[in-house]
Amino acid sequence: MPAPNSASSLSSHLVQPQDWPAVRKVTLQMLADAPHAFGEPLAEAQARTTQEWQQWAKQLADPMQGCAYLAEDSQGACGFVRVDTIVPQFPPGAALAAQLWVAPRQRGTGLGRKLMDAVTHWAAERGARQMFLGVLETNPSVVKFYEHLGYRDTGLREQTSGDAPRQIIIMARRLKP
Fold first, then answer.
1. Mind listing the pLDDT tens digit for each residue in 34-83?
2. Going by C-beta distance under 8 Å and a sequence separation of 6 or more, which residues neighbour residue 55?
3. Domain that holds residue 82
4. Number of domains into which the chain is organized
5. CATH code assigned at 27
6. Strands 76-84 and 94-102, how do they pair?
7. How is residue 40 annotated by DSSP?
8. Cβ-Cβ contacts under 8 Å for 58 (sequence gap 6 or more)
């Protein structure tokens, strides 16, 4: 029998509207695991109604706006990432990768890279020429991970909101035509 973090028990797929229960579960796991990384308090997400979760999954599955990938292993949801193609603050032809998360049991297995490859390929197939993302400056290991994927610091910074504002490093990478 394969170990829980083995590649043989792992699958990922584009999020569909009917995936809302898994999207809810993985979002709550993400926010509990890394409360400052995703810009939403856990209590706020927990308070969402079923209808709000269904609407969110429907939006994630709308190819006119972007997409999301959900990874699952024998223990359930273990990874997530989304990409937005309608981002007013970035130039035309840009896409924004967001909310990459890998469950602790799958870290170090290459799942994060696979999820980023999936959204990058999806965006490039739809004409994106550049991918952007934001990462908290207090997380240098994640910055290094993205650098290994070809992302570079643009020099741009954004501030998070809330009680303890933090700086977000904006990183980007060009995509092959």
1. 988 888 899 999 999 999 999 999 999 999 989 999 999 999 999 999 99
2. none
3. 7-129
4. 1
5. 3.40.630.30
6. antiparallel
7. S
8. 17, 20
